[in-house]
Amino acid sequence: MRRMLAAMLLLVAAQTALAQGYPSKPVRVIVPYPTGGIVDIVARAITEKIAAGWGHPILVEGRPGADSNIGTDLVAKSAPDGYTWLVTGPAVLSNPTIYGNLSWDPLRDFQAVGIVVWNQNIAVVPATLPVNSMKEFVEYAKARPGQLNFGNPGTGSSNHLSTELFIQVAGIRMVNIGYKGQPPAIPDLLNGALHFKIVALGLAAPHVRSGKLKALATFTHERVTALPEVPTIAEAGFPEAALVPWYGAYVRAGTPREIVERINSEINKALRSPEVSDRLLNSGSLPGSVKSADEIQAMMRSDYERWGKVVRAAGIKAQ
Asked: What is the C-alpha separation between 61 and 43, in angstroms, rounded?
């Protein structure tokens, strides 16, 4: 017993010393999407603020490919020492169900350390479509099963999964039209070839203000300041579809608790900064919530289960 107690005390002392000296070298942040994209932008906004206070660089590295699985796998195999982070979207929670044969598991291999941003997505239709609310659109779609289509910017993306969840909740049928990202779908929305899309607020807002698109609802917790007249999806009458995607920061599971809490504290401090908040808002995203690592891990488990149900119900498979 004395030997066991001594070993435990030595372990605690070693972890405490490690945390007190953290970071002692550059930190690497993996973004499993292309450089210059929204995830890359928000990752840099947060990490540049943290690095300025640490005195050690935080290097953001894009590792896109395989629907974000390449970069995610890299972090899943990294050392659990807090020097390799992952910043990513809901794909880390939905891809295991979509692909089914991944070498990593989000609940087993990752520890959440921060919510970086909340997505601000909005449901829009062409100005020519004869509907003016989400309830009217659902009635219109139910009268035309399989005749309307929706834009999908990528299998398993937050926009795709939010659309599939809404379709399930509303009890309608639409045709899935694939695009390579969100921007290519905008011209088809404007000319009426595409009937419905859940799209990033920053892309849709100018066209809503010009009257070329109609906004039916936002997929946010509260109304957005850019378009305050647009109701949330819950206010529009479909609260069960109100699963708001978020981008999170993660480290390898098994990272010492003291380091996890240090990273969590630094991310939360950056989110409170007006400079960072403005930068995130300008990117079209809502700054993340200030939460503990345990709270985010609980959200992660809940969303993993819910996204999995959406994927299975929609029969989404890797393409």
From this structure: 10
